[in-house]
């Protein structure tokens, strides 16, 4: 995210002695991507950012997956799920996550967060957390982000943070094994969002002020690469002093939020394909949102999609609000996921095509993830499946 910000106290010249009021040196940390060859920020700590006093294993939630075999489209009902840990009185946004779908590039999980998480750092990739409902804050080493329904919370890899829900928060978490950012075609060669992009830098909200905390022997949960399911394992690192000790930072790498209401839909005379709805991309996957919008204005246009075989992709739709026109008659509702895998042509339930002709406005809100590698089902995906969905286009299923 090549968009410069500066917060708190930073020295006039980088890599020079920078002292606090008591004369103590600040400790400079460069947090950068792709070695030293991409976006970065410089953070100024009161304590030593590498001073750990303990390292223990942290057992990650169940990340095992099951192949989508025999192949079929799936309907998963996320609102039927209980969050991990919720039976003993509460769940948090990190340890309460349950895996819905995943592959070697991205994992989609779901949690209803009701209590503060511990300090956490994803060392595998960026996180894009869509807030279905709820509000609260995310404290980070860069400062505090407020979040509300409709926000995407983008947390760069290795950002130490914790979630503090002000009310129960339904969080749809998209964890990449890569960085997540705006589509490259919307960026100038220097990284500015271009005029034809459906949003601009003004719509991105970063931390407003630095966030300092005191303490000793502070645990941070670190998700990192290893030999567990999905190639991931967890470690609990204990820091001698509180990691939230950054008095200032500047650069182009930091967490931010973007609210789906600020996405300006691109519409057309006839049906526009999913890339116009794209909001972010990671390696081997994209994130799109289908927002309330005026639809096609050709007199004979069919506003719902044509049947399509996106032969290189698995497609995951998460239905957030409104009334998704193309899925009428399928049993899908708010809180549902549909998985339409590669190798299978999908499109509207037949009755939805006729019903959409003449429509001028779609009141729908859905978040889509398309992946280039096939997705497998996590334990939570298997636990909330509606088995009748695959047969809803034909109106009948296998003869038993
Ligand atoms: Fe599709």
Descriptive report:
It is a single chain. This protein is an all-beta fold. Helix content is 3%, strand content 38%. The chain is built from 2 helices and 28 strands. The protein has helices spanning 350-356, 379-383; strands spanning 5-8, 27-32, 40-45, 52-58, 65-66, 74-77, 98-102, 106-113, 120-122, 127-133, 136-140, 143-147, 151-155, 161-165, 169-176, 204-205, 216-225, 232-241, 246-251, 256-259, 278-282, 285-290, 293-294, 314-322, 336-340, 361-362, 364-371, 376-378. The strands form 6 sheets. A 9-stranded antiparallel β-sheet has the order 5-28-7-8-15-10-13-20-16. A hairpin with a 2-residue loop joins strand 21 (278-282) and strand 22 (285-290). The protein is globular, with a radius of gyration of 22 Å. The model has no long low-confidence stretch (mean pLDDT 95). The site of fe (ii) ion (FE2) has 4 residues, from loops.
Outline of the structure:
With 400 residues, the protein is mainly β. It has helices at 350-356, 379-383; strands at 5-8, 27-32, 40-45, 52-58, 65-66, 74-77, 98-102, 106-113, 120-122, 127-133, 136-140, 143-147, 151-155, 161-165, 169-176, 204-205, 216-225, 232-241, 246-251, 256-259, 278-282, 285-290, 293-294, 314-322, 336-340, 361-362, 364-371, 376-378. The site of fe (ii) ion has 4 residues, from loops.
Overall body shape: globular
What fraction, in percent, of the residue positions are helical?
under 10%
How far from one another are the termini?
54 Å
What fraction strand? 35-45%
**Helix and strand pattern:** EEEEEEEEEEEEEEEEEEEEEEEEEHEEEH
How many helices? 2
- How would you classify the quaternary structure? single chain
Distinct ligands: fe (ii) ion
Strand order of the largest sheet: 5-28-7-8-15-10-13-20-16
What class do helices, strands and sheet pairing give?
mainly beta
Gyration radius (Cα, Å) is 22 Å
